[in-house]
Please model this.
Amino acid sequence: MKNFKAFASVSALLAALVSPAAMATPVPAGPTFSSVGGHSTHLGNDFDPAWVAGFSAAGFNLHNMQKSGELVLSSAASLSFSFVGKEANYNNGFYFGNSDGAVINSTTNSAGAYTFDAGSKIGGALDFWFKSNNLGGAIHNGADALGLILSHDKKSALVLFNDNYRGDKDYDDMIIKISITTPVSEPETYALMLGGLALLGAVARRRKNRV
Model:
């Protein structure tokens, strides 16, 4: 009976620790994205949101874009790249790292279905670029032809490409989603585990002293 009471007491304390009232609002842990430079702009009326079909945009503010912003990773992380969609007829290409050819082609890869993982990358400005119709010079991270929309939790980013077709400036010619996939251990979890172990140890010591 004494053992049961001790266990019940520890369980109650742990339950109190993990209750919403006892826990502070967690601070986003681990690596995050930021946009450096550029300027905030509202996407014009030419922007066609049809490319978000089948894509959950709930975590993004699609009305606010950082034009010419450079996408920066705060610290080393594993990354995933997804082809969200495209509006243009050009076969635009997305390149990453030391790739000689396009990693994603806007007309040959499947929008909403094509994803690749890049493995662990160091923090800093990401090394990616586009080519308009896969021709001409590279359009690098931070270029005027690129726009960024960060997710609310800063764990994902939409890169919006405006290709060399001069008939519009809608930044929906090719859209890539870049996500941080590195698993992050929540500090609160470790704190609760350590607290629970400490309580169990204290109960065990008290029982031993009573014997």
The first strand starts at residue 33 and ends at 36. The two ends are 15 Å apart (CA to CA). Helices lie at 2-18, 187-210. Residues 1-25, 186-192 have pLDDT under 50 and may be disordered.
